[in-house]
Amino acid sequence: MVFLPITPHLHISLSGIFGCVPTELATCMNFRVLHIIVVDGDLFWFRAILKSNCYHKKGHNAPCEYGENLFMLIFGAVQVLFSQIPDFHNMELLSIVAAIMSFAYTFIGLALGFAKVVEDGEIKGDITGVSTATTAQKVWLSSQAIGDIAFAFTYNIILLDIQDTLKAPPPENKTMKKASATAILITTFFFLCCGCFGYAAFGNQAPGNLLTGFGFYEPYWLVDFANACIVLHLVGGYQIYSQPLFAVAERWISNKHPNSEFVNKERRIKLPLLPDFKLNLLRLCFRTAYVASTTGLAILFPYFNQVLGVLGALNFWPLAIYFPVEMYLAQNNIRAWTGTWTVLQAFKIFCLLCTILALVGSLEGLISNKLS
């Protein structure tokens, strides 16, 4: 990740700007669709808790099935309420809660995987991974996995919005660079540990989602708690990624209609036992429609791993690789065919090839699941 202070001396072509902005806005919406798919994909805490308790009472082979779309609709309704938070600067508490919940369920998943490996006394699986009937299927699955990995590191779409909330001194970009480096190291460590211990615990039978796949059944109360942490994390994550898009769209509409009361007037509403709440009709209508659209798309394509790979592939190269590299080259006036320029161009091409491979494989999985 290349971190740059935003200065008037940085010149990027208009084609780059017009390419970056739509891509970033589309990415924000893609992330919201995925959050709702995650909720439906057995990660919604209420559904997962019901299944966990059912398995605990009736046995692990019991037919514990519950409705699907209902839980996505419930999650969407919750997001309609939280989406009325005015802007990114009013989300400190929600962000802190989401981060704590993320650490909580990650630690639980890691601990359960490690405990199962110790209990079984063996490491399951093998270096070649899940066996498939044909080589083509192996290629598709491997490509999808690349997309899943790429998706894990596309937080850069909200990096500048987070940086904008920091106070100087020290300079915001330097603070953000240190924080991001630390976050990448921690994230990579936990992702690798959870993935490795999960595969070591279950081998080729490892579910896509360890906590509710159902990989772990006991202790059921701990699995229940982990799923409650997951949904709280998702509630906060949805809003954190949505607020930048809300801000851009509403600012643009406000500039287009500066005299419209519907667009600009804040109405103060008094709620019992709660502080006064400012309601804006544009914010209410636009954000409700936005949440409804992402919920509808999630209901239409409820395939977690496949959608994860597609979105990861679409978002990773343009926002995490291409634009940061081009900005770095432009700001530092690096000439073509120098050593640094050659290395960065090779890096861009390599990542592009990985992105194409991940996109094709994930689309194949998505289409196959939709038609099957």
Automatic annotation (TrEMBL):
Transmembrane helix in keyword set: yes
Domain Amino acid transporter transmembrane, residue spans: 47-367
Superkingdom assignment: Eukaryota
Subcellular location: Membrane
Chief place where the protein resides: membrane
Membrane-spanning residues: 93-115, 181-200, 220-241, 310-329, 341-363
Presence of the UniProt keyword Transmembrane helix in the record: yes
Signal sequence interval, chain numbering: none
Keywords: Amino-acid transport, Membrane, Transmembrane, Transmembrane helix, Transport
GO cellular component: membrane
GO BP of this protein: amino acid transport
InterPro entries documented for this protein: AA_transpt_TM
Name of one Pfam family that matches: Aa_trans
PANTHER family the UniProt entry points to: OS05G0424000 PROTEIN-RELATED
Annotated protein name in UniProt: Probable amino acid permease 7 isoform X2
